[in-house]
Specification:
Elements (H helix, E strand, L loop, with lengths): L2 E5 L2 E5 L9 H16 L5 E5 L4 E3 L4 H6 L4 H17 L4 E5 L2 E3 L1 H7 L3 E5 L5 E2 L2 H4 L5 H10 L2 H10 L2 E2 L1 H6 L5 E3 L4 H10 L7 H10 L1 H8 L7
Length: about 220
């Protein structure tokens, strides 16, 4: 399960050491961690990291298959997580040490910056290959954070981007050696800790207003 640590003014949220799929309990644990980060006083920033082969493999399809009647509420909770991270009133950095797929890739895009391992691991939106269309909220998030050309390729072709290719496409900000992913993300976050507060929160809320409205809508989240 996710755990939260603090290194000076940088909170480090470790998503776990498994596939870090979006099980309802996992989503709740991440939400509790974000509560602590958001309620803290003073300069601060957030790094979201993980341990092992995966950063996040996205939706918990096994749980979802067993709880089909909860599909609507589950998607709403995923959208709410995206919206919350996208609009946090502080700088956020995703430290992608492993595979980052599907909803996991979307969660990484909700962060302000991304640092990815250069030599192994993929960032991928596989929905075209697994026959699961993007929801309107997911589409809005992806298209707000990537260039039109990259968003089109990533969404339509399900391309797997290694670290160097992801950096070249603007999906991530840096591709670094494995042992430097977390430390580089923390350094980037530490440089921005004084940005935390209402001003950054307002900037994000206005910058991503239409995206946040779509993600927060509970009327027809599936489209």
């Amino acid at each position: 399960m996710p755990s939260l640590d603090r290194q000076e003014n940088v909170f480090v949220l470790d998503l776990g050491d498994g596939e870090n799929r979006f099980h309802p309990d996992w989503i709740a644990a991440v939400g509790t961690a974000l509560d602590e980060v958001e309620k803290a006083d003073g300069p601060r920033a957030l790094v979201t990291a993980a341990t092992g082969k995966f950063w996040s493999n996205g939706l918990d399809l096994e749980w979802l298959t067993a709880h089909a009647d909860d599909y609507h509420d589950y998607v709403v909770s995923v959208h709410q997580l995206f919206a919350r991270v996208l609009s946090l009133p502080l700088v956020t950095v995703a430290a992608l040490q492993g595979h980052t797929f599907a909803a996991g890739a979307m969660l990484s895009l909700a962060h302000d910056f991304r640092v990815m391992r250069a030599d192994r691991g993929y960032w991928c939106l596989p929905e075209a290959d697994i026959n699961i269309p993007f929801t309107p909220g997911m589409s809005a998030l992806i298209q707000s954070r990537l260039t039109p050309r990259t968003a089109h390729e990533a969404m339509v072709t399900a391309r797997r981007y290694g670290g160097a290719d992801a950096a070249a496409a603007g999906i991530v900000d840096q591709a670094v050696p494995e042992d430097a992913v977390r430390s580089t993300a923390i350094e980037r976050a530490q440089a921005q800790v004084n940005k935390a507060g209402d001003t950054v929160g307002t900037i994000k809320a206005r910058m991503y207003g239409p995206v946040l409205s779509t993600l927060r809508s509970t009327t027809n989240p599936l489209g």
